[in-house]
Every structure is written in C-alpha cells, then in structure tokens.
Amino acid sequence: MNIDEAVLAVDQMMLDVVHSEVTVLEEASRHIISAGGKRVRPRVLFNAYLAAGGKDLKAAIPVATAIELVHTATLVHDDINDHGVVRRGRVTINEKWGRTFALLTGDFLFTKVYELMAPYGDLNITFSEATTALVEGETLQAAAAKDNTLTREIYQKIVAKKTASLFRGAAMLGAQLAGADRRTIDTLGEYGFYLGLIFQIIDDLLDLTGDPRLMGKAAGVDIPQGKGVAAAIARKSANGKRDEALGVVTVEDDPFLPLKERLVAGGAVEEGRQMAQALAVQAHATLDRLPQSEAVDALRTLITQVMERDH
Amino acid sequence: MNIDEAVLAVDQMMLDVVHSEVTVLEEASRHIISAGGKRVRPRVLFNAYLAAGGKDLKAAIPVATAIELVHTATLVHDDINDHGVVRRGRVTINEKWGRTFALLTGDFLFTKVYELMAPYGDLNITFSEATTALVEGETLQAAAAKDNTLTREIYQKIVAKKTASLFRGAAMLGAQLAGADRRTIDTLGEYGFYLGLIFQIIDDLLDLTGDPRLMGKAAGVDIPQGKGVAAAIARKSANGKRDEALGVVTVEDDPFLPLKERLVAGGAVEEGRQMAQALAVQAHATLDRLPQSEAVDALRTLITQVMERDH
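The joint structure predicted for all components is written out below.
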C-alpha cells in the first residue's frame, strides 16, 4: 500500500464510519466527505509514519481518518459561523440542510472519532492537544475578527493554534504509530508545525489571489471578515506604511479601488509569501536532523507542494 | 469516598479540565459547569460501578467527568439551536457570548473528552455508541419539530436515542470499570436505558407543570417547538380524541385557553406519568436480575428520585 492508496482508504473509512440510521446525518456527512479535499493532514501523518520507520501504512489509517474527521467537523461548524455558502465546490451543509442540522452533523463527526481512536491509548493525548488547540485557534480568530484587533502577532498565534497544531499532531501521531523514540516524534512534530503554518498562510493568500473556480469556494471573503494573513498586513497594504499599528481593511474603504488590487499593490501577497518562504527554510532544517531516506525526501516534496499549490 | 463526594470530584475535574489560555472558552465552560445541574449521569455511573462490585469510586471519576462533559457540550449546542436564553438559572452561553463562541465552546468540550478517555481503551466504544446516539436523537428531534411529525412512536425513539442511550452508556461504563462480566454490564445497561427514558419523560412533563423558579429555565417552551412528551400527545389533549394521527399544538391554536391548561385538562400529564410508571416497573425488574446489595438498593432509590423530582 502506497500513500495514495492509504489516502483512498481514509476516504473510504470516513464514508463507512458516518453510517447512521438517521439519514440526514449520513447524507450531510457524506456530502462534505465525498466533495474531496486535499487530505493533506492524512498525507502528513502517513509520510511521518514512514519517515519514522513505520512499515505498514494500513496500521495508520484509522488515526489518519480520525484527524481528517475532526478537521471536517470543524469545517462544517466554521461554515455556520461564517455563513459559508460554498465549500470544496459544493453548497455547504448549513446552506443545504440549515444551521441546526449542520451543527448536529459536526457534533456527530466529533462523537464518531471516539470510536476510531478507542484502540490508541496515549495517542489520544496527542490527539486531544491538537484538536483542542484547533478549537482555541478558531476562537482567537473569531475574537480578533469581532474586536477588529487582528495584528501580525495575533495572526501568527491564530495560525499556530488553528492549523499548525493539527499538522504537528498528525506528524507526531504518525511517528508514534511507527514506534519512534521521543526525539524523532518531537522533530517530526516540529516539521508538521512549520508545514501547517506555511499551509495556512498560502491558504490565506489564495483567498486573495486564487481562482475561485479552482478553489471550489468564493475568494476574497476573509479580509472583510477580519481574517487571514492579508487582513493582518492590510493596514500596510492600504497605506504603504510599515510598522504602523495594524488593523483591518474593510470593503467600505475606498470602494473605487477593489480590495484585492489594493492589497496586491500594497505588497501583502509578497510579504505573505516571504513569511512562508522563511518557514519553509525552517521546515527543511528540521528534516536535516533526521536520518535521510526516501520518506524524508517525500516530506521535503510536501513542503514544495504546499508552497506552490494554486488551490 | 462516597457518591456525593465522587460527584463533587467530577465537578472539580470538569472545572480543571476546561482550563485554557483562550479566556472566553474557559469562562464560558465554567459558566455552565458551575451553574450546577443534577449530575444524574455521573450518579448512574457511580451507582452502577458499586452495584457491579467496584470498590474505589475514585477510579470512575474521569469517565464520569467525560460523560457529563459531552452532555454539557450538547446542552450548549442545544441552546444555540433552540435560541435558549436561560439554563440552570443562568443566562445561556449563546445569549451572553453570542452564537459563534457558544458553538466553539461546545466543540472545545468535545475535544477535551478525547484526553479524559485516553486511558480507557475499549470503554471508548461504549462511550462513542452512547454519544453518537445522543446526537442522532437530537437530530431526529430537530427533524420531527421541523416537519411537524412528532408522534408517540417517534417521540419514544427520540427519547431512547437522545437521553436513554447516554444513561445506558453511563451504567455500562460503571460496570465495565468495575470489571463486571458481560451479563452484568448488559443488565445494568438495560436499567440505565429505562431510567433514561423515565428521566426524559419526567423532564418533558416538568416543562409543562414545573415551577420555572425551581427549574432554572423557562417552562412551556417545548410544546410550541414541537418537542417533548406533551407535544407528542398534544393532539389528544387538544381535542380529547385518542388514536388520531398525532400532531403538535401550536401557541396559535385557541389563544384564549392557555396551552398548559389545555394540555393538563386533556390528560397529557397523566398519560406521561403512566408511561413513566410502566417504565419504572421495568427498571425495577431489571435490577431483580442482579445480586441484591446496598448499591442495588441505591439504584432503586434513583428510580424513585427521578420519578418524584420537581425540577
């Protein structure tokens, strides 16, 4: 079994595990699961498993499925909070079934994870830390958006918690499943953390520059909501001055010049890419501390893929 | 350590476990936890543990805490869906902090449970079945309310899933923690299931007849929402005819005669109590199959307490 096959097995296990006699829960769950997604967290887990000496990817499938299910649960709940209408090229659950059923579908996915993780003892500690951090990050993001207080510092903290922690958790769980020693687990966790930061920054930049047809969702929605890297550096982009107290550009500012153009012209995209580049260097340096192998090369390729993705 | 002390330890563990550097999550979690509640699910778990031969209640505290935390998470999310304003005598989280933070607080509690349940291997299977059924029951309830299709049959299915399954799970987990054999686990599970059915029916009747000051929440809110035992038998109460296709009384029907009086006059309360009485007989019969002990007597007392509670 190679990684692509293992990822397909994760898809299948997700579809199986959401079986329910309550039709709407099964349908809504399958609606978002079968819409696809990059499955980047399972890929990180599988690659880390191999890099840590794991031999049988099959053994890592249930935990990779659990990680992706929690991620999916939080997407479903995000779309409620953000009034999202399209996700992965499909209408969102809240749009199609209403807010109540969307909320319950997310909860359903959370409870299904208890079952998947049952055999894995202490791995549940890693899992819990990662998923709790995710929710904490989402909460910080909601608070910063509400109070209009998103600075670069707060942005970095949000991204660390809401995205990088789950990537770190995925990498650590892969290493733990492979029976790695503490040092290898932590090193791979560090790699996952940097990769997660990069992933989210690029994701935020794609909100600004991406092609909505490729993205499967509307673009340019984060900044007016006070979210994303561009929002964090928007003050600079808006007026060209660095080191000024940061704030959020709203769509109402200077409606004659489109927000996107203004941000691009102000250098927000360039600055975001520079952040991501610096983090990529650190991610590579982390991998230098591991015994080099094909699997470690694959983790390096993953950095490049995350940097270069266009959707 | 006796059961009251163990319940206090659950309260303390809940307060400890929701610690977070993200203030709003900790504050909102503590807001609902410290508002109290009957902690009836932990009590069921502890009593079942002793009835199954368990000796040290301390060993059962983390799992009891996990059960109560998931229950709490679903209350927080329920209040979003029902636009609840008061719960346990306090303003709800959605009312105080807004819907977004309430949703995230519920998710936070779900993820904290992964940590608590980490050491308990197969018990996570029981736990997952119970909590998934809970969410399924909530979903059936939302669907019946939306489509105005709540019949006695559907009502029973909803109550079985949304309440009785978690009571069954609590009793089974208590027995499993005590190292009981399969038969004892299942018998106690059956007891828990009946007790949960009774608990919910009485809860629904209290919505109709309870004193809001004692209840810590508004009364009479379920029926117009198409929820609760009274709603299921409301058609009969409204027009005095049995065996008619059942529906839901809305507040708009005959506004000159208060809903509550109409339902009471129609015999809804009496019929609900009869349902509960019949189930109490079955709960007692289940306990007859166990070796009698003080702990089994305590489980019998619990039936009486649940039947007679006034808030």
